[in-house]
Amino acid sequence: MSSSTSFPTPTPQALLDVRQLSRLDPTGVTQLLKPTDFVLMPGAQIAITGSSGSGKSVFLRTLAMLDAPASGEILWQHQPVPNDMIPAYRTCVCYLAQRPALIEGTVLDNLQFPYTLRSLRKRTFNLNVATELLARAGKDASFLSKPAGDLSGGESQIVALVRALQLEPQVMLFDEPTSALDPQSAGAVESLVRHWFDAGAGSRAYIWVSHDPQQAKRMSTVHLTMNKGVLLSGDAP
Q1: pLDDT of residue 3
Q2: CB atoms < 10 A from the CB of 231, how many?
Q3: Where along the chain do its domains lie?
Q4: For the segment 179-200, what is each residue's pLDDT rounded down to a tens digit?
């Protein structure tokens, strides 16, 4: 990682302060993400659009520390994140993929699963919180006993979203979370996100990647675009 003395002082109160972050393809030759500076402030609702392969998912996955950067650094609340703190970081900065990965078992098993991880063993699953979040998505308590293998794509995404939101993260990274969903399921996801964001009273933030310009406008106050690994303002080509 680059030395912090080579860059300006972190922006006050920033949740994420990204400095010259880049990522290479598996061959180590092609830059999937060009060196990028980016600041995420509390209360930010950012949409990123761009063509397939432009680097949107690469950017989000690198921010989530799911993939290692080739250069640069990510500061979380002004502090670097050492390797042993990455699992804890991922409970504060949660990534939601387009196609959720659920474990075998019921919906309840999936919602309880995060609390079996070492980084969350000091926290306790709260059934009331999970039930309330599911209710906001139109699912009653009986939904908890439904086998994960029987869920539709929309239901699976709702479970994955509730699984993340119950942890009360400060930042959510949404990687085209509704692109494969029917309008009703997409609306439920958007509603849950708004509820989580509003409940944070200005302390939370999210980045929403979408191919749908109307959704990007609906779910954000700031619009950015990605083009060939370069993050640009929304009015850029």
Answers
A1: 34
A2: 22
A3: 4-233
A4: 989 999 999 999 999 999 999 9
